[in-house]
Design brief:
- The complex is a heterodimer of chains A (about 300) and B (about 80).
- Chain A has about 300 residues and is of the alpha+beta class.
- Chain A folds into two domains: about 260 residues, BirA Bifunctional Protein, domain 2; about 35 residues, no CATH class.
- Helices cover about 40% and strands about 25% of the residues of chain A.
- In chain A, the strands form three sheets. A seven-stranded mixed sheet of chain A has the order 3-7-8-12-11-10-9. In chain A, strands 4-6-5 form a three-stranded antiparallel sheet. In chain A, strands 1-2 form a two-stranded antiparallel sheet.
- In chain A, a hairpin with a 2-residue loop joins strand 1 and strand 2.
- With about 80 residues, chain B is an all-alpha fold.
- Chain B has a single domain, classed as ACP-like (Non-ribosomal Peptide Synthetase Peptidyl Carrier Protein, Chain A), CATH 1.10.1200.
- Chain B has three helices and no strands.
- Chain B is globular and about 40 Å long.
- Chain B starts with a helix and ends with a helix.
- Classes of the chains: A alpha+beta (about 300), B mainly alpha (about 80).
- At the A-B interface, helix 8 of A face helix 2 of B.
Chain lengths: ~300, ~80
């Protein structure tokens, strides 16, 4: 039996996820949303004392910022662009006829200035760079956004539109590395607090093509990315639910982020895959939250 | 032109190093000299094209591109293997 289809079907039946007819694009039921809200509150309780600046960007970002980020160098296969009809009345008539005939009506759509956000922190760097050099001690930010990645799949843990909660640290190499180390410990404790098994491992991003293989190997060799793996659809192939990334000076150099001393700023982030964590909880503790173990319920609903 | 000289000129053209490649020894660490991950990918593609070879996946790592000498060793080995095949 296909375990992945099975979990997805059970989630649909329970009303936790709602089928839209597109793999990886789902509605969320109230109980599912409640778990995400409770988990986000728990993240807040496990976060360090330092107060981050809270920013919420919508799930679309400035196309110029997207282009400047270099995302297309590494992940062209995952990106989603927003296109709109920009024609005249005659074009509109032709468009309607094309749709009626079942043709490819999207051919004439023109790219807008908006690209779907691929990761919650992408709109942040150009925004902060625009402010000028960082204050002494750098910056700490709290972000959350729906993100898009074009990878249709029947694996419920691989959605095309999903939410990512992120904390981003911008500062000196020492500051951002200390931030990442601290969150690797906090993240593991946080996940253990809700009764899930965790395993921390080095990882790489799914860079495109053979060149991407090299980028991925290099990322692993330098231990730039760690993931907290949790069983969701399979105990053998665990799912990355948290990631801890050190970007070195990539975004700093790309956007001209400067520390108070005028050095190129380094950046690091911790990202929580909120749907993946909720799925891990439902897979482990059952589809009815009323039946979850008392300590897990206490941790989330306290 | 020897393989080392050819690699040196490809590094100069595609490595985007902040230092003059002529000042680097054959065994100098290219990453320490400022070779970025992305430039190393461009370097890899340019070397494949010049020598008409293909790096297997297990060679697509930092060690392979760590110095001009390291690249030359892998290129020599692959040229022999891939011509013999």
């Amino acid at each position: 039996m296909d375990m992945q289809t099975s979990l997805l079907d059970r989630l649909f039946s329970a009303g936790l996820l709602i089928d839209t007819g597109v793999d990886g694009l789902y509605g969320r039921g109230g109980a599912f949303e409640d778990v995400i809200a409770r988990f986000e509150a728990l993240i807040g309780r496990h976060a360090p004392d330092a107060t981050p600046e809270v920013i919420r960007f919508p799930p679309g970002m400035n196309r110029a910022h997207f282009e400047g980020s270099g995302y297309m160098k590494s992940f062209p296969q995952l990106a989603g662009t927003v296109h709109s009809f920009c024609g005249c009345e005659l074009d509109h008539m032709n468009l309607l006829q094309c749709i009626a005939e079942g043709g490819d009506w999207t051919e004439g759509q023109k790219a807008t200035d908006i690209v779907l956000t691929p990761a919650a922190c992408y709109p942040l760097y150009p925004t902060i760079a625009k402010r000028g050099p960082l204050p002494e001690g750098g910056g700490l930010f709290d972000l959350q956004s729906y993100c898009f990645r074009h990878e249709p799949s029947k694996d419920p843990a691989r959605m095309q539109l999903f939410r990512m909660r992120e904390f981003v640290r911008i500062g000196t190499p020492d500051e951002v590395m200390a931030f990442r180390e601290d969150w690797m410990e906090r993240g593991a404790k946080l996940i253990e607090a809700v009764g899930l098994d965790v395993e921390l491992d080095t990882a790489n991003d799914p860079f495109f093509g053979r060149a991407g293989k090299m980028m991925g190997n290099s990322q692993r060799e330098q231990k730039l990315k760690f993931e907290l793996l949790i069983p969701v659809t399979s105990a053998a192939n665990k799912t990355a639910c948290l990631s801890f990334n050190y970007h070195q000076d990539h975004f700093g150099a790309t956007w001209g982020l400067e520390t108070a001393d005028g050095e190129v700023a380094h950046t690091a982030c911790v990202g929580f895959g909120l749907e993946r964590i909720a799925l891990a909880l439902f897979a482990k503790h059952g589809l009815d939250t009323a039946d979850w173990p008392a300590d897990v319920r206490a941790a989330l609903w306290s | 032109m020897s393989a080392v000289e050819a690699i040196r000129s490809i590094v100069a053209k595609h490595g985007k190093l902040p230092v003059d490649v002529a000042t680097l020894q054959d065994d100098a660490d290219l990453y320490a000299a400022g070779l970025s991950s992305f430039a190393s990918v461009q370097l890899m593609l340019a070397i494949e094209e010049h020598f008409d070879i293909e790096f297997p996946e297990d060679r697509l790592n930092r060690k392979t591109f760590s110095s001009i000498k390291a690249i030359a060793e892998v290129v020599t080995e692959l040229s022999e293997d891939q011509q013999a095949a």
